Amino acid sequence: MLSKITLGIHSFLVICLLLTTHNASAWGQNGHRIIGQIAEVHLTPTTQSALLPLLEGESLAQISTWADEMRSDPSAFWQKKSSRWHYINAPDSTTGFIHNHNHSLNKDTVTNILEGIHFSINTLKDKKSSIDAKRFSLRFLVHLVGDSHQPFHAGRKEDRGGNNISVTFFGQDTNLHSLWDTKLIENENLSYTEFAHFINSNDKLLIADYLQSTPAMWLEESNNIANVIYNKNETKISYQYIYTNMPIIKTRLQQSGIRLSGLLNLIFDNSAKPLVDALKMPANTN
């Protein structure tokens, strides 16, 4: 039987691990799971069937946090290269977010989230890709579609997407990135299934609007939102901030879930209708 001291040490280590994982997660674990849960509702039966061997018994909600959880893996890719998959620095006013289609990508040469999304799409569409490569790409793609809708994953390089901007949340010290990743969502005190159910939509016009988009557009939207928040320069966060900004967060989570399903339907179901079930974009464009 374990001693009380041993049990105490074990509990402490588990809590530390959970805190570490929680702080590292973009959108927080609940945010990513909300997106995965919404996406599952909008998948076509053909896409659902195609995903079964890739999911290995898990759901989109379950795999949505994998790309963050793997950051503890000691291998060179996860320690030195994977972090740049999760974000893109704000471009100058003349270029916008542009994906270089002539850039031959493998997982080690991906330099930003937009390249990571397109690498994952291409891998999933390539009939020559191994099952392991497709599982890797699906898990990353589910996560990156979520990240692309978090405003500060397309924020400023100089403040690391808000990580270096200190704010207080009801008097507790945090930073702007963590506030939007996690704290505002957790403040709703909802499970991810409850949250997803509350904000999901079957409005055909709204879905059509969301699906008429590309990954580059998602990042432009995020950057525009981030710039508005930067310009307001609010550092003492309480009720008024929540009232103003939670509708933005809910919209971004809703858009992300519906667009993720649209992208997966585009990849796996040739009969999926653009602007109804699938994104309108060809999968090899921005």
Characterization of this structure:
The protein is mostly helical. The protein has one domain (26-268): Orthogonal Bundle (P1 Nuclease). Helix content is 58%, strand content 3%. The protein contains 13 helices and three strands; from the N terminus they run ααααααααββααααβα. The chain has helices spanning 4-24, 28-41, 45-55, 60-63, 66-69, 76-81, 113-125, 131-148, 176-186, 192-199, 204-211, 215-232, 239-268; strands at 166-169, 172-175, 236-237. Strands 2-1-3 form a three-stranded mixed β-sheet. The longest helix is centred in the last third of the chain and has 30 residues, at 239-268. The radius of gyration is 19 Å and the shape is globular. The model is unreliable at 1-25 (pLDDT under 50).
Strand proportion: under 5%
Number of domains: 1
Total number of strands: 3
Q: Specify the number of helices.
A: 13
Describe the largest sheet.
3 strands, mixed
**Corresponding CATH superfamily:** P1 Nuclease
**Major beta sheet, strand line-up:** 2-1-3
Based on CA atoms alone, the radius of gyration comes out at: 19 Å
The CATH topology is given as P1 Nuclease
Distance between the termini: 58 Å
Main attributes?
single chain; 3% strand; disordered N terminus; PLipase_C/P1_nuclease_dom_sf; 3-stranded mixed sheet; metal-binding; P1 Nuclease; mainly alpha; 13 helices; 286 residues; hydrolase activity, acting on ester bonds; 58% helix
Furnish the topology, listing elements before pairings.
Layout (H helix, E strand, L loop, with lengths): L3 H21 L3 H14 L3 H11 L4 H4 L2 H4 L6 H6 L31 H13 L5 H18 L17 E4 L2 E4 H11 L5 H8 L4 H8 L3 H18 L3 E2 L1 H30 L18
Parallel strand pairs: 1-3
Antiparallel strand pairs: 1-2
Helix pairs in contact: 2-8, 2-9, 2-10, 2-13, 3-13, 7-8, 8-13
